[in-house]
Amino acid sequence: MLLRAVTLSVLVACSLELESLVHAAINCPGSKGGLNNAQRMAVLDSINDVRRKVAKGNPELLHPEAPTATKMNKLKYSCEYENKAMKFTANKNDSSEGWIRHTSQFRGNLDRELPRMFEDYAMKVGVAHIAHDMAKLVGCAVKKNKNATLTVQCNFDKGWNYRKNKQPFVKTGALCSECAPYGARSCDDGLCKV
């Protein structure tokens, strides 16, 4: 029995190690989005951290009695969406209707700014555009501007527009209680893993 427990423990540890290695390598070959793999990971981790806080009803981002989310997907990085974001930053308008965008502009070091950029945005502007509970994909690009600022543009597969949808951006209830009906395998610290 002890041998089985140890074997199971080793298998779980190996599985988690493999998942973290796969998660750590976001390679977008041929992308001209301006982000390297480490920066892509920083963006993804930062956005998922905000989404996790929203899912858990974090009072710092929302309000003191904020409810929890029944289903908040953990985002995956999309090279296709990165390319769309790059087209948008290059042309200011890529005429692709329906893409949900988040744009931030700042001065400073990109590697230092990326990990906190989305939480800063959420604290100042709100979380609805980056925390739509049904979103599954995000891709971002960066552009250096003439005035020494950087523009980071992110595209999401699903987004929130209250005027259009007339619905909240997240369904509230017991944390992760509706992950499975939407194809999620498990709940990872408040986020549904699809």
- Mind telling me the CATH superfamily name? CAP
Q: Helix and strand string, N-terminal first?
A: HHEHEHEEHEE
The assigned structural class equals alpha+beta
The strand count comes to 6
CATH-derived topology: Pathogenesis-related Protein p14a
- Overall residue-averaged pLDDT value: 76
Proportion of helical residues = 25-40%
Cα separation of the termini:
32 Å
Instruction: Assess the beta-strand content as a share of residues.
Output: 15-25%
Largest sheet: 4 strands, mixed
Protein described:
By secondary structure, this protein is an alpha+beta fold. It has a single domain, classed as Pathogenesis-related Protein p14a (3-Layer(aba) Sandwich), CATH 3.40.33.10. 38% of the residues lie in helices and 15% in strands. It contains five helices and six strands, in the order ααβαβαββαββ. The chain has helices spanning 2-24, 37-55, 79-91, 110-124, 162-165; strands spanning 76-77, 100-106, 137-144, 150-156, 186-188, 191-193. A four-stranded mixed beta sheet has the order 1-3-4-2. Strands 5-6 form a two-stranded antiparallel sheet. The longest helix is centred in the first third of the chain and has 23 residues, at 2-24. It is globular and about 45 Å long. It starts with a helix and ends with a strand. 36% of the residues are buried.
